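W.,

You were right to be curious about this one. When I first looked at the sequence I had no strong expectations either way, so I just let the prediction run and decided to look at it fresh. Below is the sequence, 621 residues in total, followed by the output.
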Amino acid sequence: MADNEPVIQGVGWDLTGEYPAADSAEIDADFERLGALLDDIERRNGALIPLLDSVAALTVDTAADAIEDARQIFALIERARKLLRDPETYAECCLSVDSQDEQAQALLGHLQSFSKRFDELAEPLGQFLDLASGSVVDAYLADPSVALSRFNVEHSRRRRHELLPLAEENLVTGLGEDGIHAWGRLYDQLSGTLSCDVTVGNERRDVGLAEAAGLMQKPDDRLRENAWRAINETWDEHVESCAAAINAIAGWRLEMCRKRSVRAGTTVHYLDAPLHANRIQRETLDTVLKVAEEGIPLARRAALLQAKAYGKSHYGPWDNRAPAPVANGEAPIAYEEALDLIARAYGEVEPSMDDFVRMMAGKNWIEGTVGPRKRPGAYCTGFLKSRTPRVYMTYTGGSSDVITLAHELGHAFHSWVLRDLPDSQRRYGMSIAETASTFGETIVRDALLRRAESPAAALDIVWEEAAALVTFILNIPTRFEFERNFYDARAERPLLPKELKAMMRAAWEKWYGDSIAEGDPLFWASKLHFYISGLSFYNFPYLFGYLFSLGVYARREAFGEDFFPRYRALLMDTGRMTTEDLAAKHLDVDLTQPDFWRDTLAMIEPRIDHFEALVNARTQS
């Protein structure tokens, strides 16, 4: 490579500011401090636990000592959480880059016992605050040391009727590490070590799944299809393992719903936990899905236009991250150029957002390399002690990579905005987590479109917008449709691989209809989101975030110079409000009603009209 030739792939991230290595003395020192904190929590729990059986009958006077103990335990838990989560985040970061990193694997294994003990020791405080009377809880929250955790306490109490006795909750936590979470870890390990044979031109190449997924971002239609089929061939060889894992994970959750239903005296639905975690109401989710279904014709139209641009009659499941065909023969976008594009686009909203992107790049807090043992996907994570974010992806120079990078940097910016708040107000639901990220995508697309100097350049940019519509209005609901139908069926018995394939194919057909050449029957095996043991239904938050963020973005012109302060204030409140309250306060809208969501979809239609004109001009020329 010549000295002046741009580097396409991204650089590796710098984790040394947190720990120098997975087996470092610094991690050992944190474990020693963590152990001491957990010992202190256990000692203080000795006074709290005996009160739990009769906690509802306590008055402010009879609970005075317990209230003070609870405040002290809260402070200890918050300190311990940092010392537990940072090594865990570090290990996961290492394994994302090298799925066979033995030191990181050993660190995660070592963390299991700490994590199990932490969860068990935190449970008594949770039960005390969930089950105590409102007056006792108000007395607890009256102290400034815990007052800022009010929202979390009150939100948790909404599911208080589902709580099992302390001993049973601890049993669930203890068994989970080698139960549901072990299945999730097995899938992660499998996805990081598998490879597939992809036909590239006239040769067969053995590549990791992440690298193969990167090939589906290339403008060569045949190459994308080859990569998709190669990935599916590999997963098809492991469907029994995947079926065992997904059945076990869902079965565990459904059994917990049954146990909690008995305790609550009412049915605990499998959607209750993800809705609560996302801080949205079932009525809101139903409204969003209803409006998404209304948007199917528009999204299918976008998919068919993408197919037309490639000279095809139907969209393929390998086209989900396809670039505009005009990119054929054009040079890929170098990593540094992509960062500059994103920084300048962010800066058009607010100069400090430009500074943030350049800071992330300058500190090497972004992982963008290409490697055979990298895990597929992209994400944003962060370290609690330093309050600094990290972005992970595999950057190969496609325009969709630029959008992915803009998306993950949106997550990172959200984290950065919250860095000075207390930890209890920095944890937010996934539905809102996608707001800043999808907002970041839209910023970059619009900024790039304004700079486009030709119809071909404009098509390349608008293409990503059309692709986003297809992803969020068709692909994300397809995932939800499958997962909901799977949970309904799994309540009766485990499903066979052939049944999972049929169920997945049916979900594709329902949402994509005749716009797609064929469904993806193995998507249940290849999509890691279905195997995240700590979260279920990791799909509808993306649809929610997409539409919600576009609704926020649509108000940019109306709010004028006041937009960024209002946007920042909205992000600041994400850790201390329900989503419905957040929208009512900052946007003056009711999310349980379809108007806001329909207005957002209506805003997208002229953009697809523009996309159609560009596609027609290209195909007719």
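Here's what jumped out at me. The chain is about 65% helix and 5% strand. And, maybe more interesting for your project: The beta strands are 195-200, 203-208, 366-367, 379-383, 388-392.

Coffee later to discuss?

I.
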